[in-house]
Design brief:
- An eight-stranded mixed sheet has the order 7-5-6-4-1-2-3-8, sandwiched between helices.
- With about 325 residues, it is of the alpha/beta class.
- Helix content is about 50%, strand content about 15%.
- The protein has one domain (about 5-235, about 305-315): Spore Coat Polysaccharide Biosynthesis Protein SpsA, Chain A.
- The longest helix has about 35 residues, at about 270-305.
- It contains ten helices and eight strands.
Length: about 325
């Protein structure tokens, strides 16, 4: 591994006006510690990526960049979501640094885990996953649904690191190869394991958000889960096929039973049983069409080859 690697800490930001004044100095303090104690290059940077915020987030980023050269920032042309924002920062940094560490802005992830990540990098790891050792700061509902999400992803055949979000160290060499993954539907925590290279995990305790409100309500969590499954696994299609085979088998048995009853003169017109069968099969058909529709829709979006992000402003642009 290269000595004195240039490090970019990539931080996605969306409406972080309340928390940024608290966490930005903490990130700078940690970066200086990584420079003096862990051998990171002096020209390492903190890269804020503004995701089309509607508050004063971008103005704060511009202010910090003028006050200290270690702060730099880019802004997307509009809000495109967390995954696209992290990707934009990583792709912006890949040709300018040796390693990146992506981390959320809210202060929930332990920034001091970066020190262990750098140690793992020096030991030869090119991807280091930040893994939450516990989720006690989360509500019962969020903790239960999150853990269920990882287990469901595993059942669907998606390779992820349990309790890992998007706090990770990635070398520029990995990012160069990762840039060849050109899909529009992005699920980073399931995509990086596909790249390969030597990797390990660093464990830390998750804290409460330092200020502001969470930008991941239930509907976004569900959307992320759907994107993760349908972008990286075709297991739902296999499940539909298996269910179709099973229901066909049950249907054949039902036909045989009906014929036997008819031949023996024991047929009874049953409205209730007929309606239950219709509702059940109708629900299965609509569910199956919905799952298939998700895949068709994603295929449709991929064929357009639209840009995954557009950078409209940079703090280092000459005025």
């Amino acid at each position: 591994m290269k000595t004195n690697p240039r490090l970019f800490i990539v931080i996605p930001c969306y409406n972080e006006e309340a928390v940024l004044p608290i966490t930005a100095p903490l990130f700078l303090e940690e970066l200086r510690k990584l420079i003096t104690e862990k051998g990171a290059a002096e020209d390492s940077r903190i890269l804020f990526v503004n995701d089309g915020s509607k508050d004063k987030t971008w103005e704060l980023i511009q202010k910090y960049a003028k006050e200290d050269e270690h702060y730099i920032g880019i802004s997307q042309s509009r809000n495109r979501g967390h995954q696209s924002t992290v990707l934009a920062g990583l792709m912006e940094a890949k040709d300018q640094c040796d390693i990146t560490i992506s981390i959320d802005c809210d202060g929930q992830d332990d920034i001091h885990a970066m020190e262990a990540m750098l140690d793992a990098y020096y030991d030869g790891c090119e991807i280091v996953y930040g893994v939450r050792s516990n989720r006690e700061s989360d509500t019962w509902f969020k903790r239960t649904t999150a853990q269920g999400f990882y287990k469901m992803m595993e059942k669907m055949g998606v390779e992820t690191v349990y309790n890992h979000a998007d706090y990770r160290l990635v070398s520029s060499r990995v990012l160069q190869h990762f840039s060849n993954y050109e899909e529009v539907n992005i699920f980073l925590r399931g995509m990086f394991p596909l790249v390969g290279f030597k990797s390990t995990s660093v464990y830390y305790e998750r804290h409460e958000r330092m200020a502001g409100e969470s930008h991941y309500p239930l509907n976004k969590m569900i959307g992320l889960a759907v994107d993760g499954i349908t972008s990286l696994s075709i297991e739902p299609i296999h499940l539909i096929a298996k269910m179709g085979v099973f229901l066909s088998f049950v249907g054949v048995i039902g036909i045989i039973w009906v014929l036997i009853r008819a031949l023996t003169g024991h047929t009874v017109i049953g409205w209730a049983s007929m309606m239950c069968i219709i509702f059940f099969l109708g629900g299965i058909i609509l569910l199956s069409l919905g799952v298939i529709g998700e895949y068709v829709g994603k295929t449709y979006m991929e064929t357009k080859h639209r840009p995954r992000y557009i950078i409209s402003e940079r703090t280092d642009e000459k005025e």
